[in-house]
Amino acid sequence: MTVTSESKPSPAWKTTMGSEQFEFMKKVLAAPSPIGFEAAMTYGVIKPEFESFMPEGWAVHQFKGNAGLVFDSHPGRDDLVSVMIVGHADKIRMQVRKIDSDGKVWINTDSFLPTTLIGHEVQLFCQDPNNTGKYKVIQNCTVEALGAIHFSTPGQRSGDQGIKPESIYLELHTHGDDRKAQVEALGIRVGDPILLDRPIKRGVSPDTFYGAYLDNGLGCFSVTEIARMLANEGLDNVRVLYTVATHEEIGRFGSTQLVGELKPDVLIATDVNHDYEAAPGIGARKMNPLKMGDGFTIGRGSVTSEYLVSVFEAVCREHEIPYQLDFSGRDMGTDGMAAALAGVDSAAISIGYPIRNMHTGSESAHTGDLLGSIHAITELLRHFNQLNDGKGVSRDDLKNSHVRLDQL
Fold first, then answer.
1. In the CATH hierarchy, which top-level class contains the domain 5-91+213-400?
2. Which terms does the UniProt entry file under GO BP (predicted)?
3. pTM
4. CATH topology of domain 94-196
5. Where are the domains of the chain?
6. What is the 3-state secondary structure (H, E, C) of the chain?
7. What confidence tens digit (pLDDT) does each residue in 8-23 have?
């Protein structure tokens, strides 16, 4: 039967994400993996999922100092060009900083804007005082600052004055005598991590979703989905290092360690980006008008390989995958910097998904942007596998493809 262009199925990035795939994405994003405790996502969700589909010959790299994981499609094949695709599992978190005599648990706000936290339900993770070395979760507590509007200053009521980070505390509803002792009896200690309790849900507009920690469970989800698509294709000319890193939110320290150890030839960071077009109150900043729903983003500038940019664009044009160009100056702000920070010679790039309300409990995104990026990276790897008359991309291709502005 001849298949006409009219009868071809719509590509994934133009269709609604199926419920099974959405539920897996929800599971990834729900994993309690604050900075330094990423194993809930890497070992608890990602590793079992990879083990359900990855071929027997793949290997898993584990590490002593962090809970990052690398799934290696061709272990030991140092003759092949290696491509590391990275998402980061760590979530920005709040931390216990002081337990007061009245039972208030004062916390830091890390990379959250304090005013976005007020009233949110959270989960606090601490050691079980009755089971040394084991952890437990305390739920049904909220983040507070003022207690009530009646106790606020005139400036706070008018909006002229904000809320300071040192004003943020947890409400645990303690009462009676010895409230500090009540809190400590729960096992709560200084440094314990706290996460927003906001699982993702589908949004009002078609193909949208919202909730906490899209940054960057989405990158970990995309790395897994790329591997799932390619696992049985036998890309024998490219070594792919599917990577879920840690500690990105405090300096890209996890990916820097992994890159330093495995030394990939190509580094592709997958992470969220901003929907600048819809961001309120920033018109005067003249930001690049990226839009949620208009395609994933390809980063330029900083230490990005312009060769990779051009190849990505060519792949997207060939397969009609929508994308948007973005730029950065000194620092990409993603794991795409890991090779430069580790002193490793890799051609690097950062791929993103424009989201709204980053670092809040209501981050929102479009499934089409995410699925488009997954297919674009998949097609890039297929392209690399077919180069040089089917022999695959070579290191000389990377070395000899630098743009020459003196040859215009």
1. alpha beta
2. proteolysis
3. 0.96
4. Elongation Factor Tu (Ef-tu); domain 3 (2.40.30)
5. 5-91+213-400, 94-196
6. CCCCHHHCCCCHHHCCCCHHHHHHHHHHHHCCCECCCCHHHHHHHHHHHHHCCCCCCCEEECCCCCCCEEEECCCCCCCCCEEEEEEECCECCEEEEEECCCCCEEEECCCCCHHHCCCCEEEEEEECCCCCCCEEEEEEEEEECCCCHHHCCHHHHHCCCCCCHHHCEEECCCCCCCHHHHHHHCCCCCCCEEEECCCCEECCCCCEEEECCHHHHHHHHHHHHHHHHHCCCCCCCCEEEEEEECCHHHCCHHHHHHHHHHCCCEEEEEEEEECCCCCCCCHHHCCCCCCCCCCEEEEEECCECHHHHHHHHHHHHHHCCCEEEEEECCCCCCHHHHHHHHCCCCEEEEEEEEEECCCCCCEEEEHHHHHHHHHHHHHHHHHHHHHHHHCCCCHHHHHCCCCCHHHC
7. 789 999 999 999 999 9
